[in-house]
Amino acid sequence: MLLWIALGSLFGCDSLANPDVKPFSVVRKTLYVGPEQVDCVGVGPQKCLLVREKTTEEWTYFYDTILGFHFQPGYRYTLDVKRETLRYLPEDASPYVWTLRKVTRKEPFQ
To answer: What are the tens digits of pLDDT across the range 29-85?
Structure first.
């Protein structure tokens, strides 16, 4: 019995001890980004983007980072992004990695 437990810990749980960070799923999305960042609290105090996936929705706090996106206050953006869902993350980590594919629109907001 102990042999099976030892073998299981050596071979069966390899992905947990050394997680493979390949995405579980990949989704392409459009995000609308508001013209300012706001104070919010995730793991700690931070600045959040205001985003929505449809122009008819309310703005929501976006706690993550969008790789390749450089926010400038005073502009509204429409972004084409890739959202990858990852496995085996710590409890306080986001399950998503967001990557900018293209800024499809950037317009001044007054």
So the answer is: 999 999 999 999 988 899 999 999 999 999 999 999 999 999 999 999 999 999 999
pLDDT at position 22, please?
64
* DSSP per-residue codes, the chain: -HHHHHHIIIIITHHHHS-----SEEEEEEEEEEEEEEEEESSSEEEEEEEESSTTSPPEEE-S-EET----TTEEEEEEEEEEE-SS--TTS-SEEEEEEEEEEEEE--
Cβ-proximal residues to 107 (8 Å cutoff; 6+ apart), any chain = 75, 76
